[in-house]
Amino acid sequence: MRRVFSGMQPSGEPHLGNLLGAWVSWVSLQDDAECIFCVVDLHAITSPAEHDPATLRSRTLQLATGMLAVGIDPSRSTLFVQSHLHEHAECTWLFNCVAGFGELRKMPQFREKSEGRGESVSAGLFDYPVLQAADILLYHADEVPVGEDQRHHIELARDIGQRFNHRFGEVFTLPKAVHPPAGARVMDLQDPTVKMSKSASSEKGIVRVLDDPDRVVKKFRSAVTDSDAVIRHDREAKPGVSNLLEILAAVTGRGVDDLVDEYAGQGYGTFKAAVAEAVVERLTPIRRRYDELADDPGEVTRILADGAQRARAIAAPTLREAKEAVGLLLPA
Fold first, then answer.
1. Active-site entry in 176, 198, 218, 219
2. Where are any strands of DSSP class E within 9-155?
3. CA 45, CA 43: separation in Å to the nearest integer?
4. Segments in 187-263 forming alpha helices (H)
5. Does 195 participate in catalysis according to the annotation?
6. Structure pTM?
7. Cα separations (Å) of 61 from 176, 252, 269?
8. SS3 state of residue 190
9. C-alpha to C-alpha distance for 291 and 63, rounded to whole angstroms
10. Which of 11, 14, 247, 249 could be 209's S-S partner, Cβ–Cβ 3.0 to 4.6 Å?
11. pLDDT, tens digit, for every residue of 269-326?
């Protein structure tokens, strides 16, 4: 059985993009893969100005609870918090001594997030992709499900692993990136040219997994469309309508063309109401399960502790082999 690794930052309350863009595929992967899922909290502290300790702790537990609520099954998958394993930080240092300054400086996300910040950019933000490489390579993952915006990071992880193996011997498995279906890309309801994002979307543009039904309906009612009132799929000419069609297709499992035929001539008001109703129906059992788990945070903590123990059973031997390979004197 192939091994899959993926992680998510606890950078805000989970939203519809997380559900349809990642979690739905993660849940299905459990049927035919050995899955390791991680709340990557160390990645969430790379921007000191945006980092609040109490909020980080709360969001870490919230994200883990959300993963369990959507169907990540601890009896079939390993779910843990990144900082609970020191192996990630140690492996990052080994990779820092293999990675090149130039290749890190060219990473698109670093250039984007550091623009205009001058000398205030943290070394952690610069080093983010190396930590991500350690996250993945410690577990001998065969596949890493990611969005297209993370493709460069997976390529770098492969480069680092290959360079390490070439210099010190075959220690790390080189993974391949796998991408979710194109229809799972969820865009901002107020600006459908950009992805729905916990950090960039306005409150009206982001649908949170824990939003109550009335709020969900209100957000879809005010979703940006266009003025010609024709329901068809065209991301360039009609990004708002296309986004709503793709959301409806993702939550119902139906084809976009089928939906276009059904709602042709019905007007945007009717169409938006149908999308809202379908999303509410999809989110209701998740919210119910989330509330059950939130009422027993000790159980979530226990699941995470068990997950950390299972993750360490893989990561610790890998790190030990890597340290031995580079010539570090290991304790008896």
1. 198
2. 34-39, 77-81, 143-145
3. 6
4. 213-221, 239-252, 256-263
5. yes
6. 0.91
7. 29, 29, 38
8. coil
9. 13
10. 14
11. 999 999 999 999 999 999 999 999 999 989 999 999 999 999 999 999 999 999 999 9
113 is annotated as an active-site residue: yes
**95: nearest Cα among 140, 135, 146, 155:** 135
> Which residue is listed with tokens 């899922």?
37
Superfamily for the 188-291 domain: Tyrosyl-Transfer RNA Synthetase (1.10.240.10)
Active site includes 176? no
Q: Position of tokens 């610790």?
A: 316
Q: Which of 106, 176, 195, 219 is catalytic?
A: 195
In the sheet where 143-145 sits, what is the strand order? 77-81, 34-39, 3-8, 143-145, 176-178
User: 317-330 burial by CB neighbour count: b if 16+ within 10 A, else e?
Assistant: ebbeebbebeeeee
Class of domain 3-178+296-326: alpha beta
Q: Identify the helix (H) or strand (E) that includes residue 131.
A: helix 123-137
Catalytic annotation, pick one of 113, 218, 238, 272: 113
DSSP letter (8 states) at residue 138? T
Q: What is the pLDDT of residues 191-242, one digit of tens each?
A: 999 989 876 668 899 999 999 999 999 999 999 999 888 999 999 999 999 9
Q: Quick one: pLDDT at residue 184?
A: 63
**Tokens 């930590």 identify what position?**
131
